[in-house]
Amino acid sequence: MSCVQAKKKDKLKYDKKEMSSCSGKMDTIKPKIAKLRADLDLIHKCMNTSRTDPNWSTYCVEPPASFSSTGNQIPSGRMQGVEAPKDRSTAATTADTFAIGDMYLSGYTTKCGPQTITGWTNSLDIYYSTTAVADSTNTYVSTGSGTYTAPVNGYYNICAFLRFKKGGNAVDVTVYAGGSVVAGFGDAVDQDWRSTGTCIIRLLSAGNTVYIRNNSGGGSDCVEETAWRYGRLGVYMVGPTT
Fold first, then answer.
1. What is the pTM of this model?
2. DSSP state for residue 97 in the 8-state scheme
3. Are 65 and 72 in contact (CB under 8 A)?
4. Is 123 helix (H, G, I), strand (E, B) or coil?
């Protein structure tokens, strides 16, 4: 008869300092876990409680302030740092900047042959600089010349739409921005009225103008407005570059 004696294992080694640190972190997390469990219990009770029950208002409580606001920023969890607010939805935030221009053709009018489309009606002319909480008093929409002037460097969304009159040969329209043609649209069907347009995003410098032009050479190649506001030119900044 024989027996084999197992080798005695080495004593388990561990970092006392690190273990103490982990224990402290766990002590910090435990109350939060308990709070989550309590909140989850309330949610279950709320889901199973009728609004007519006297306890409904106790179980169905409103959540804390929305994370979408800029006044309750919390650490992101990556570097334990508070991220700066990126809310660009309110004019009351001084650091925000946005620019909007919109105009439309009104009444009955025709624009036949080559010409810049003018005679607009102003719908929106708004600009908030990065140092202001009120709309600028400057004019960026010029209804007489049919131009929108970019107030600041940035990327702008440009949309232009027109209706073309029945008859004639064809109507070709170009969109100008910063002195260059950046887009075009038109209609070659002369047996019917047509409305069309286009939208693009362009980088503009402060002072650049945007306008649209009828390039068709025939006197019967006409843009037609019937007071239904087919004709529109809208420009708004989607992102500043300075």
1. 0.62
2. -
3. yes
4. strand
Residue 194 phi, psi dihedral angles, 5° rounding: -135, 145
d(C-alpha 200, C-alpha 159), whole Å: 7
Distance CA(200)–CA(142), nearest Å, equals 21
Residue 176: phi, psi to the nearest 5?
Answer: -105, 140
Which of 38, 171, 60, 72 minimizes the C-alpha distance to 117? 171
Q: How far apart are CA 196 and CA 204, in angstroms?
A: 24
State how far the Cα of 148 lies from the Cα of 63, in Å rounded to an integer. Answer: 45
Least confident range from 113-117, 119-123, 133-137: namely 133-137
pLDDT digits (tens, 9 = 90+) for 52-73: 777 777 778 776 654 444 444 4
Helix ranges (DSSP H) in 81-196: none
Q: Which amino acid is at 226?
A: T
Please state, in angstroms and rounded to a whole number, the distance separating the CA atoms of residues 198 and 73.
40
β-pair partners for 125: 101
Cα(175)–Cα(122) distance, integer angstroms:
18
Q: Give the Å distances, CA to CA, from 131 to 26, 63, 71, 150, 220.
A: 46, 34, 20, 17, 49
Judge residue 26's burial from the number of C-beta atoms within 10 Å of its C-beta, 0-12 exposed, 13-18 middle, 19 or more buried. exposed
**pLDDT tens digits, residue range 8-56?**
555 556 677 777 778 778 888 888 888 888 888 878 888 888 877 777 7
Q: Residue 174: which of 143, 210, 139 has the closest Cα?
A: 210
**At 4, is the pLDDT very low, low, confident or very high (cuts 50, 70, 90)?**
very low
